[in-house]
Amino acid sequence: QVQLVESGGGLVQPGGSLRLSCAASGSIFSINAMGWYRQAPGKQRELVAAITSGGSTNYADSVKGRFTISRDNAKNTVYLQMNSLKPEDTAVYYCNADVLLESSYYYTDYWGQGTQVTVSS
């Protein structure tokens, strides 16, 4: 019943910027935390940034000062502004949302399909 649709990935040169978007839709009562994870080939999926419904944020040390996470609660959408991109940022980026469905008593994690970000000259 819940779908996360991601957009904004692509190919960019080192030092460039990209803005990722993720919109949640379905029978949603509320969303607690939302976040972005990434996974490079042969690597474990890692948290990049997360944001609570109240706006508190958390970032991986590797992206602090370069990436900014934000959200629009009215649109159930989370964004990731990625600046000063490096080749090591290359990965598939996945959106995550902790969702309370209508008529449910429990929050459930949902994931997007992932969007490819490639940083290369």
Summed up:
The chain is an all-beta fold and 121 residues long.
Instruction: Give the averaged pLDDT, no decimals.
Output: 97
Note the main sheet: 7 strands, mixed
Q: Which structural class best describes the helix and strand composition? A: mainly beta
Considering DSSP H and I runs of 4 or more, what fraction of the residues is helical?
under 10%
Please give the oligomerization state of what you see. Answer: single chain
What is the succession of H and E elements?
EEEEEEEEEEE
What fraction of the residues are assigned to beta strands by DSSP?
A: over 45%
How many strands in all?
11
Number of helices: 0
N→C terminal distance? 40 Å
Key features?
121 residues, mainly beta, 4-stranded antiparallel beta sheet, 58% strand
Polypeptide structure, described:
With 121 residues, the protein is an all-beta fold. The protein contains no helices and eleven strands. It has strands at residues 3-7, 10-12, 18-25, 28-39, 46-51, 57-59, 67-72, 77-82, 91-101, 107-111, 115-119. Strands 2, 4, 5, 6, 9, 10 and 11 form a seven-stranded mixed sheet that branches. Strands 1-3-8-7 form a four-stranded antiparallel sheet, with no helix packed on it. The mean pLDDT is 97.
SSE layout and pairing:
Blueprint: E1 3-7, E2 10-12, E3 18-25, E4 28-39, E5 46-51, E6 57-59, E7 67-72, E8 77-82, E9 91-101, E10 107-111, E11 115-119
